[in-house]
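re: ur question from yesterday

yeah so i grabbed the chain u mentioned. its 314 aa long if i counted rite. heres the sequnce exactly as i have it in my notes:
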Amino acid sequence: MKTLILAEHDGATLSEGVYHAVSAAAAWNQPVEILVLGQHVDKIAQAASAIAGVSRVIYSNHALFAHTVAEDAAKLIAPLGNDYSVILAAHSSFSRNILPRVAALLDVAMISDVLEIQANHTYVRAVYAGNIYTTVQSSDTTQVLTIHTSRFAKAGNTQTPAAIDSIEAPAVSNKSRWLSEFRSQSERPPLSSAKVVISGGRSLGSAEHFEQILAPLASKLGAALGATRAAVDAGFAPNDIQVGQTGVTVAPELYIAVGVSGAVQHTYGMKDSKVVVAINQDPDAPIFQVADYGLVADLFEVIPSLTASVQSPS
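ran it thru and got these structure tokens back, copy pasting raw so excuse formatting
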């Protein structure tokens, strides 16, 4: 049998999560194939074929997948289930939208956000915002799961690309349709793959302060900006930079939490960071329990001072 990875991409580049998913797929010690859906995705398929450990790439290059909806994607993936013992993807809003429907069509369980893959279809995953780890075992003939990317290494590239094959798109489902989308344009690195992340909380007080206080430091450090759910709900930041259980999971080399209280829903999304620095006026803030370095101070004084002292890269 084989393992199939559903690849996420933005139309131009593969998501970093695909590389981590390939590493996770090695746990089954069987051929790994990647599925790419989209329109004009020949270069995406070529990039996927160059990942070490991939034996084949299959893709559907069709206008139907110019804006992929779950119903159409699942309609293509589910019939492939007989050829694969494992169907997996990186845990993201993209995979959370599609794979549960695939699992339902295959009449199997959907196991989400896996932290560790063990023998005999046994997995470790977190519940209660990461406070409890559970071990689950599936007896389904087809395993459908998403993986917590920061827990798995990133696969490299190979000089010997895998074979690439095209498959036909299914008929349009007509049960849902794509209407529109809005993409934030930024010169900052992508949040999910940035080496440095600066996150702000509700303590910043407004959208203006969020940008004025954090953006200059982010620019000097070449960092991505993140936000807590409270900051996003208050309208201080767009929801695509929300870090946490219901947002983006990050594992940068340096994570700077500014005015972040440290709710478990937020720390779940950043606790795998290599070094965590917390700045908060409240000495009892839970964020200090997961921080490597903590500073009890007024962020409106500390951040401008820190920004002024940082030398921009030449």
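noticed a couple things. The chain has a mean pLDDT of 92. also The first strand starts at residue 2 and ends at 6.
anyway ttyl
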